[in-house]
């Protein structure tokens, strides 16, 4: 059964994008929602007296935000050099915990034969070489910190402040995440200019959209999106979302903005490939047989594309611990410190604190405090639970 709902959205079908004349305000119209969409968005709110089910903890009934607080308690004290305060209202799970991993305890080499000592040295060197080979294969460089995940919810989460690879186990065959830090101080000027262009473009795109509040795990900040996704309208497979009223105010500006999307798509692909070519190739090999379009609103197959959808967040975005339901093998993220009013990159200290990106079930996270630059990450978002911790920024600041 279809439910007619009056909405100001304009969606584009597979065959064409719905357009309006430049000088005519688009009329409001009834959109026939699919049954699944109507069930999701039109049902009455659930009984607030019922205990919500935390999706990241199967079989447990509790407030999902309690998981966020527990994860914050597991994060060690922020480094003193950052000048940031301790986490709000929480005590660390382990007091005075070191910010680096302690060396694994080794038995004292008492009365060991020289042969056994040589064997241990050989195995250690062999393991180090195996790790370096894996680093070179997945990240393109040997000398990058390697972290073997610890699935123990009773220990502190290790927070990283520089580039690293997180492996699922000591075999170094399965990647949990690859993270690289790029300081502005050593960044090539041409690369910084392209990041600046990306920042300006995303801020400009947000002017023609409304924030997406239907993202289940999100509870703070604003989420926007570009490209194609599953359509809400019945008899329509996929579409793009835009606010017709906002587009009508500057139709020419919106159309000009869309002409830059192929370059944005190409730049993001180049950054993903630079982070990890094997992961990028796997995503592209998965995407190309679909003959899907890129980010551009024109439904044209792009042989160089690797994605048809992009999400970006602003204003202290935070979400609950979750795993995504995308079909893509890996997800690529970029963190840009920007001034949301102008779109300019913030090359100095970022005003505010918090917003760490954490993999709580695998015992590690990314701490951006005090870092002046760009951070990029790729991971299997459908398999490894993750979340963005809450952050705060002074009301007078435009940093995000």
TrEMBL record:
It comes from Puccinia coronata f. sp. avenae. The lineage of its organism: Eukaryota, Fungi, Dikarya, Basidiomycota, Pucciniomycotina. This is Tet-like 2OG-Fe(II) oxygenase domain-containing protein. Residues 192-391 form the Tet-like 2OG-Fe(II) oxygenase domain. InterPro entries: 2OG-FeII_Oxy_6.
